[in-house]
């Protein structure tokens, strides 16, 4: 199974902004995908997670729908055609601009 992931801002600095992951598990969860991303770029761990939960500054969408910030949100099962988008909002990113 393949899952398409988009990483925005500094999250995609090392891996690029668009990634297609090959998943061997028949019922992969968002948690599985997050840990696959962290294996590829360990710097993502502190940017995406906070003690095994989504970091409060992390915005994670599946097919355009925001994923719950609780632990159970990470356990959502994904399908082949699902698209995962990950972004992070920080104070400087909001204030910055022209």
What does this molecule look like?
With 98 residues, the protein is an alpha+beta fold. It is built from 4 helices and 7 strands. The protein starts with a strand and ends with a helix.
Nutshell version of this structure?
26% of the residues lie in helices and 29% in strands. The protein has helices at residues 30-40, 44-48, 71-74, 91-95, and strands spanning 2-7, 18-22, 49-50, 53-54, 58-62, 65-66, 83-88.
From the alpha carbons, calculate the radius of gyration and give it in angstroms: 13 Å
Whole-number count of domains:
1
CATH topology: Ubiquitin-like (UB roll)
Low-confidence runs of at least 5 consecutive residues: none
| CATH homologous group name | Beta-grasp domain
From the 3D coordinates, which CATH architecture would you assign? Roll
| Biggest sheet overview | 5 strands, mixed
* Alpha-beta content class: alpha+beta
The percentage helix is 25-40%
Proportion of residues in extended strands: 25-35%
User: Per the principal axes of the C-alpha atoms, what is the gross shape?
Assistant: globular
Strand order in the sheet with the most strands? 2-1-7-5-6
Order of helices and strands: EEHHEEEEHEH
